[in-house]
């Protein structure tokens, strides 16, 4: 009976999700300095009191939001290639796509704000470590990498660093054309390196 | 006689340099929201009026600062390998080092702030394009790359994207150990890819 939820619990879950999604788009569009619990509550159509019931502090709301959306994206990515054995070039492109779009923009805003705020810094460093480990796990699985092979782990890590750098390059200008050429070339090189 | 400068011109140049260096360290430590012309003038030991004589707006000061320090770093990098024919792994490490440290931290703060401020966005996108082209030129030269070879250009671009991603990974936590392992592996892969 534990999994049956009451209508009240359902409403609470829906409210929470709306707050988290509003928080990520707010962070992506307005940066950390423009992102407060009040602004997000209004955007989500939720009272400030209800928002604070779910997330007592600003730090709680925004770190939870980035983590929630990262998990949603990971799930979507796994569903995109459910069978394994996908073409590595397609997988490389899908992984790079994780680092463009609103989630990465939001995470970057939080990350950079955290560099100048000690309390936020600790929270965001922990969050990034968790999200980073999960992304690494997905990449290893989807690229069918044998991590026992010397250098394989670092090869995947470096590729994900490249994906992060490509996300950064897309922040101010539309980098789609250049990125497609870089990804095509490096998918080939990566395929060779992974054996 | 055009290159002879008066003591007054010398003082002006020194003041300008002090402002630019103070602006970069301010941006790296306090972010865009904590970085104003007044704060930088005080840090540089220069009057606010003198600072505004050199840089009429906040945008002028901080974009000039990031460009100036990027040029200084490029010059230092060229001097590190003046003869060409350097070991590619050493060059790769030196290039990645461009993306850790205060200059990259400052550039990142400016970059991310620019994503949410239209006027700053245009200025910073232009600045990043110039600095990016110069970094690419240095990388091609120091890695002794034949850019006429298909894919060579994209190979270097992807490597610089990786360096940028490694810089981002170093923002909140000391990533030195992991970075060294990734760079060692990717220097090998890059060397093979460049032929």
UniProtKB/TrEMBL annotation, chains A, B:
This is TetR/AcrR family transcriptional regulator. The keyword S-adenosyl-L-methionine does not apply. Pfam families: TetR_N. The keyword Signal does not apply. Residues 13-73 form the HTH tetR-type domain. It comes from the Bacteria. InterPro entries: Homeodomain-like_sf, HTH-type_TetR-like_transc_reg, HTH_TetR.
